[in-house]
Structure formats: C-alpha cells, structure tokens
C-alpha cells in the first residue's frame, strides 16, 4: 500500500480531501507530516506560535522539512520580555520572518481606559473579554486567506486538552484544516527533541514556567501542578483557555 506522501500532488484539493489525507498521517513520523504539509500546502499553511517550547519544536521541524510554512504570532501588548528576546533569536537563527498581528488599537484603548489595566482578574467574563480583544480577533485576521494552521497543543498539557485530535476541521474558522502534530507527545518527548537538536527556547522555562502567555496572566508552577496551572491561576482549571482553542 502506498503512503499518502507517494501520491500525486494536486494543484488544489477540497478541504475534506485534505482532511482525509492529513488523518492518514496520524501515526506517521512527525517529519513525514511536515513533508506532506510542504508538498500539499506550502505557504498556504502557517504555524501559530506563542514561542513556548512546543512551538519551537514545530519551527525547527518546519525549517528542516517544510521551509515554505509561514510562522505568525499574536502580540497582545502584554508579553514578557523573554518572549520578544526569543523571537529575535528565531529570526536570526532561522532567517525567518515572523508575521505579527496586534489587537485593534481602539478596542485596547477603550478597554484599558474604561476598565483599567487588570480588568481580566475581576471575573471570568472580564478575562474572556480581554482575551477576545487581544487574541481571538487578531487570530481571525492571521488566519484569513490560509488553508491550514498548525499548533503545538498536546493532550498531556492540561485537563482542557485531553481530547485534542491530531487533525481537525476548525469550525471556528470556516472549516480550516488545523493540525496538532504533537498531540500525543509527552513533555519528555518535547524536551528530548530540544536537547538533541539544540533548539533555542524561552528562558522562562528554566524558571518554572512550562506554559507562557501574557506576563500578568502567567506564573511559575509547583512541581505537582499541571503544565498550564500557571495560566489564569485564579480561575478553575476547566477555564484555562483563552478562546483560541475552544474546549469541545
């Protein structure tokens, strides 16, 4: 039986055909997944990167096996300086142009002028409002015109991510192909790849931050806590998502 990678490349495919092809790669080596992305999608696909360690693994794999794959980030205006420093390292090491999407200026100005700089700590609804302005809306612009996007989501990260699929049709963005090639990887798998390939990573990881987001909403975690316990730590664990990846 021939593998999906040996099939004839088509100039264009329906979303359902691409979904079927991607699903056939669910148990393939991750390098093969990237090779498929390069051949079938190229620059029409992009990695959504917050520059956590998983995203760094994706970027390293992409530069080796899918060099046409684009990389974008959402600059919320509240990122820690260590994240910006890593972005510069990535740009210089990989010769990579990182596409940056900011929230709409007027909406941020109104939010901070009327509700202050830490409104997100007042209630779950207030926090979701801030995330919607700073992340969810910019993501919609970042995905416009693309056919697929890739994330570093893993099932092991938290209770909100245990059901993550390797690939899905992203209903939130018009059925766009969404690939999560590290879905079944463990934390040990990720760090083993980083060490073997000397991949740069955010220095906050060495200070107890397994998950890194906006500076005011992220803290270091205790050894017994899950990897995303430092995100919005004042909320219940089942709420620890920002809206970029809706919990099913």
Descriptive overview:
- With 248 residues, the protein is of the alpha/beta class.
- It contains seven helices and six strands; from the N terminus they run H-H-E-H-E-H-E-H-H-E-E-E-H.
- It has helices at residues 15-23, 30-40, 53-65, 81-94, 105-115, 124-143, 187-197; strands at residues 45-48, 70-74, 98-101, 148-150, 167-170, 176-179.
- Strand 5 (167-170) and strand 6 (176-179) form a beta hairpin.
- It starts with 14 loop residues before the first helix and ends in a 51-residue tail after the last helix.
- Pathway: Sulfur metabolism; hydrogen sulfide biosynthesis; sulfite from sulfate.
- Residues 46-220 form the Phosphoadenosine phosphosulphate reductase domain.
Radius of gyration: 18 Å
What is the name of the CATH superfamily? Answer: HUPs
Overall mean pLDDT stands at: 89
Largest sheet: 6 strands, mixed
Please report the number of helical segments.
Answer: 7
Order of helices and strands: HHEHEHEHHEEEH
> Can you tell me the CATH architecture?
3-Layer(aba) Sandwich
Fold-level CATH name: Rossmann fold
Function: Catalyzes the formation of sulfite from adenosine 5'-phosphosulfate (APS) using thioredoxin as an electron donor.
EC number: 1.8.4.10
GO molecular function: phosphoadenylyl-sulfate reductase (thioredoxin) activity
Cofactor: [4Fe-4S] cluster
List the keywords.
Rossmann fold; alpha/beta; six-stranded mixed sheet; 6 strands; disordered N terminus; about 10% strand; about 250 residues; PAPS/APS_Rdtase
């Amino acid at each position: 039986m021939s593998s999906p990678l040996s099939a004839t490349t088509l100039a264009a495919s329906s979303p359902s055909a691409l979904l079927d092809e991607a699903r056939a790669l669910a148990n393939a080596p991750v390098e093969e997944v990237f090779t498929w992305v390069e051949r079938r999608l190229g620059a029409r696909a992009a990695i959504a990167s917050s520059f956590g360690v998983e995203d760094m693994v994706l970027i390293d794999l992409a530069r080796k096996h899918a060099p046409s794959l684009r990389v974008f980030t959402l600059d919320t205006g509240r990122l820690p300086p260590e994240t910006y420093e890593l972005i510069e390292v990535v740009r210089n090491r990989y010769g990579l142009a990182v596409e940056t999407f900011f929230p709409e200026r007027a909406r941020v100005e109104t939010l901070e002028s009327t509700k202050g700089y830490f409104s997100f700590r007042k209630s779950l609804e207030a926090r979701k409002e801030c995330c919607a302005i700073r992340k969810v809306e910019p993501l919609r612009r970042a995905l416009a015109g693309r056919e697929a996007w890739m994330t570093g989501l893993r099932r092991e990260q938290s209770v909100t991510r245990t059901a993550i699929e390797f690939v899905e049709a992203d209903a939130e963005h018009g059925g766009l192909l969404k690939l999560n090639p590290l879905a079944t990887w463990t934390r040990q798998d990720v760090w083993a790849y980083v060490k073997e390939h000397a991949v740069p990573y955010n220095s906050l990881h060495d200070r107890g931050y397994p998950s890194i987001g906006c500076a005011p909403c992220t803290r270091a975690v205790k050894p017994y806590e899950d990897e995303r316990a430092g995100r919005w730590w004042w909320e219940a664990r089942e709420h620890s998502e920002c809206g970029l990846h809706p919990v099913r």
